[in-house]
Amino acid sequence: MLRVRGLKVFYGRIQAVKGISFHVHRGETVAFIGPNGAGKSSVLMALSGVTRKEGEITLEGRDISRLSPYALVKEGIVQVPEGRQVFSSLTVEENLLLGGFSKRGDKKWMRETMEWVYHLFPLLAERRKQLAGSLSGGEQQMLALGRALMGDPRLLLLDEPSLGLAPVIVEEIYKTLKELRKERSMSIILVEQNAPLALEFAHRAYVMESGAIVLSGETEMLLSDDTVLDVYLGRAREDFFD
Amino acid sequence: MKWMWNPKFEAMDREELEQIQLERLQATLHHAYRHVPFYRELFDRVGLGPGDILSLQDLREVPFTTKEDLLQGFPYSFFAVPLTKVARIHTSSGTTGKPVVVGYTKRDLQYWAHLNARILMAGGLGERDVLQISFNYGLFTGGFGFHAGAELLGATVIPASAMSITRQINIMMNFKATALVSLPSHALRIGHRLQEMGIDPRGLSLKVGFFGAEPWSEATRKQIEDHLLIKALDNYGLAEVGGPGVSYECEYRQGLHISEDHFYPEIIDPATGEVLDPGQEGELVLTTLTKEAFPVLRFRTGDLTSLNNEPCECGRTLVRMARVKGRVDDMLIIRGINLFPSQIEDVLLSFQVGPNYLIRLYREEGLDQVEVQVESILTGREEKDALAKRIERDLADKLGLEMKVVLVAPGSIEASSGKQQVVVDEREI
Lengths: 242, 429
Description:
The complex is a heterodimer of chains A (242) and B (429). With 242 residues, chain A is an alpha/beta fold.
C-alpha cells in the first residue's frame, strides 16, 4: 500500500534519514526500532509532510511525496505525535472533534466514530467534558490516539506510544491498539524504543541505526534471533529479559 | 504453487520483489560498511557511501569483490558480526592453503534451510520421501545445506555423506531411498556400478535426484536419468555466498530459478565489468541480500551464464539463469573441488622437474581423474617411479586430490606459441 524509496530527511544541514526504502501492506503493522536518534521519528514526520525530505513515496501507486500535511491527512495518513500534544485547554470531546476536521462535513460519521472511540477508551467517555490538561499521561495518550482515529486513518503513524508511561498503562494502550486493529482494517507504522514491545505487536520491523535501515524482517524471525537484539539494540535486550 | 516451498516469495509480483530487494540491499550495504573494514575501504576508495545507493541500478557504482579479496581476509576479516554470534563455519572447497571461511548466524542458517527446501520441493520432494544425501558432511557446504533443507521440508533424511559407491548402493536399496543428493559424477558412477553389478534400476525406489557443485552437461543428465531411471535436476550455489540454495531447476527445467529475495544477480562482461542485458552471456555476479555473518557485495563468481526474465510455466516469477557454461578463469572443478592449474604448478616447482607440464582431465566410470605429465631429466625407471610417487603424495597432501603423475622426457611437452596449454579436458561435460 505504502511504498517508500530512497527517503532522505534533513534538518538544516543535518541529514537525519539517509535514503532509506521500506513498504507497508494494507492491514499490516510495521515497527521501526533502534536507538535514540536513529531517525525513526523523522521517518514519521516525513510521511506526515512536516519536514524537508527527498525520495519517492507512493500510496496505492500514487505519488504523495509533495502533498501538504493537510492533504496527507485527507489521504488517511494520520499521526499520533510523540509526547501526546493534546490541546490542554479544550475538553476531551473538543479534542476529538478537532481530530475529525477532515470529515467535518459528515456529522453522522463523526458521531459514530466518536462512539467507537469511547467504546475503545471507556475512560475518555467518562471524562468527555473534562479539560484535556487535567488528564493523566496515560489518558492523554489515549486521547491523542482517539483524536487520530477521528481522522479516519488508512495509515496510522504511532510515535513512541509507550514513552514516559507506567508499564501497566503501556499494556493497556497496546491492548487497545490490538483491539482497534482487529475492528477496523488499517495499516500502522509504529516507532518504538521499546523494541521487545514493538516486535511483539508488529508483523514486520525495520531496525534503524544512525539514519539507515540496517536490518528488516518478520518480527517472529527477529525475535528468535538474538543477533538483532544484541548487535543492534544493545541494552534493549536486557529490558527484554527483565 | 503446488511445488513451491515459499510461494509468497517464489511467485511474488516483480514490483514487490524489487522493492524488497532494494530494502534488503540497502540494509546489507549499511551492515557491510559498518562492520567489515574491507567494504568500508572499498566504498571510501571510490568516494561512495552506502546511503548513495537509492535504487537497484545504483549498485553498479559499487566495485566488485573477488575471490582473492575474500582469501585475503582469512580467516575472519569478512565476518560482519562478532564471533560470538556466529553459529556455524563452512569453507570453500579450495584445496590448498587457505580456503574462504564463511560464517553463519542462527538466522543465516534458518534462511539457508529454507533456500534448500525450495530446491527440494521444486523437485517434488515431500514428507513421504526418503532422501539420501551423498554430499560430504563437513566444512563443505553441500551436506549440511541440503540436510537442513530436507529436515525443514519434513523428508526422511539419510545422511550417507561420503562413502564408497558400493555402500551408497546398499543404503539406497536397503533403505529404499526415493531421492538422491550428490555430485552428478557421483550419480553417474552409481549408475555404472549398478549396471556392472547387474542390478535392475527398476528395483530401486529412486525417483528424483538433485545434482550440483560441479558443471554437468545435458548428455550427463541423460546418462544419469537412463541409468538410474530418475528425473535429474540441476542446482547451483557456492560457498562464498553460503553454499547450495542460490538457484534451482523447477519441473520444467528451462534454467535455474535464482532465489532473488536472497541474492541479487547481475551478468557482467568479464573483460570490462559492464553489466549486460538479459539473454547476454557473461560472468555471474552475486550480492547477498539477507546474510548477517558474511555479507558479500558484487562477488564475481567466475561462472559463465545468462539471465532469462521471461515468466516460467511453473508460476515462479524468479529470474532464471542458464546452466553454467564454463569458467571465466582457468579454475578447474574436479569432483566438486575447485582447483587452479597454478596450484599444481606450485607443487611441481618444489621438485626438480619441468618446466613444462600438462594436466589431463578424464573420466573413468564417471569419476573425474587427473593425470599430471611433467618433464624430468631422470632416465632410470626406478628413480622415475620413486620421484613420481613422491610428487603424487605431495599433490594429494597439499591439494587434497589423488592425481596420477607421469614423468616424460624433456622437450616432449610442447611449449607452443607463447603461453602453453596446460590443461587438456577430456571429460565430456
